[in-house]
Write a structure and sequence with these properties.
Its cofactor is NAD(+). Pfam families: Epimerase. This protein is of the alpha/beta class. The chain has a domain of 205 residues: Rossmann fold, CATH 3.40.50.720. The protein is built from 11 helices and 14 strands. The chain is globular, with a radius of gyration of 19 Å. The mean pLDDT is 97. Bound molecules: nicotinamide-adenine-dinucleotide and uridine-5'-diphosphate-glucose.
């Protein structure tokens, strides 16, 4: 029996990027044919798995997207394509409202017009802003504090309203802090000029940066540095495959789910883990707080655990760091 031929192809936008390339691998491993659509603005052609079909282009190009949907019999879209740098969204908000909001609207419209029944969206914990209490639940207020978070929240709203009006269901996955790399070394984060803590710190550990800035040591946390819920990109990719299966099984239901482990690590704990892994201390430079950073942000993940058969398998900080380091070494 050929498992692959039984499953319809999935359109993965942003599949040449960090998280999308891991999701493409997870889909292929589970027997789903994958069509990657990416304009390579921040992604890499080499990150697209060999077993996937690649189309270079923009998610707002309705003729291109429509052709892919019709030619490949697409029944589900996983939408990772977007702009992801929070400080840049403050400096250039219209770029974010264009690439994340307006272009998502165009993609959703193409999906609806061609009857694509399922849509999975990369949302973010940034939709919560600075929550009053942690761990944060999906039904708590969404008050984003930057254009990036607002650009993503608006797309969640468009999906909610569209699913109420048209025969399409969706799953918005709100990622917490994504880190690590494919355990088999097939993909990882190659982003140029990355700002994410674990990526920056493994670059420093391997001598690609002088030091790591610790942004703020006076937060209301046990050691004074910011606390975040780091989720391994492999577990996150697996959650997408489960979400797809759930949308197909329950076509009348849509979901908004936190993707995190429900526990946090401080900046210093992350740097300690990397020091342990390399047996060499990274140079730390204590700096002022970065604007807009909450003290602590962790996920209440009971909804995803109740809704999907997803279970974390790589939820260990040392594992996340080891895989991030292994990928960073391969980039040399
Ligand atoms: N990295 C994180 O910690 C994190 C956290 C929460 C949410 N997210 C979301 O996850 C998604 C993927 O993020 P990532 O970290 O993999 O970023 P990334 O930059 O590595 O990937 C984004 C990909 O989308 C492509 N792209 C951008 N605009 C496009 C367009 N208009 N048409 C076609 N392709 C386009 C880029 O070339 C790139 O390959 C984003 O939507 C992001 O907002 C990421
Ligand atoms: O060089 C650095 C980078 C970060 N940090 C701190 O490390 C923590 C994590 O920061 P970072 O890795 O930049 O992630 P966040 O700012 O928490 O935001 C990420 O996680 C969000 C979800 O929570 C996503 O929406 C965003 O896209 C993504 O940038 C924060 O306390 C930062 O202040 C440092 O101290 N030094």
């Amino acid at each position: 029996m050929n498992e692959t031929s039984e499953k319809p192809a999935v359109l993965v936008t942003g599949g040449a990027g960090y998280i999308g390339s891991h999701a493409a691998l997870a889909l292929l491993d589970a027997g789903w044919p994958v069509i990657v659509l990416d304009n390579l603005v921040t992604g890499f052609r080499s990150a697209v798995p060999e077993r996937a079909t690649f189309a270079k282009g923009d998610v707002a190009d309705a003729a291109l997207v429509g052709g892919l949907i019709e030619n490949h019999g697409i029944k589900a879209i996983m939408h990772f394509a977007g702009s992801v740098v929070v400080p840049e969204s403050v400096e250039d908000p219209l770029k974010y409202y264009d690439n994340n909001t307006a272009k998502s609207r165009a993609l959703i419209e193409t999906a609806v017009s061609l009857g694509v029944p399922h849509f999975i969206f990369s949302s973010t914990a940034a939709t919560y802003g600075v929550p009053d209490t942690i761990p944060v639940r999906e039904d708590m207020p969404t008050v984003p504090i930057n254009p990036y978070g607002r650009s993503k929240l608006m797309t969640e709203w468009m999906l909610r309203d569209t699913a109420a009006a048209h025969p399409i269901n969706y799953c918005a996955l709100r990622y917490f802090n994504v880190a690590g790399a494919d355990p088999e070394g097939r993909s990882g984060q190659s982003t140029a000029g990355a700002t994410h803590l674990i990526k920056v710190a493994v670059e420093a550990a391997l001598g690609k940066r002088e030091s790591v800035a610790v942004y703020g040591t006076d937060y209301d946390t046990p050691d004074g540095t910011g606390v975040r819920d780091y989720i391994h990109v492999g577990d996150l990719a697996a959650a997408h495959v489960h979400a797809l299966e759930k949308l197909i099984a329950d076509p009348a239901e849509s979901y908004t789910l936190n993707c995190g482990y429900g526990r946090g690590f401080s900046v210093l704990e992350v740097l300690d883990a990397i020091d342990r892994a390399t047996n060499k201390p990274i140079k730390r430079v204590m700096e002022a707080r970065r604007a807009g950073d909450p003290d602590a942000l962790t996920a209440d993940n009971s909804a995803i655990l109740e809704t999907l058969p997803w279970r974390p398998k790589l939820d260990d900080l040392d594992t996340i760091v080891a895989h991030a380091l292994a990928w960073e070494r391969r980039l040399d």
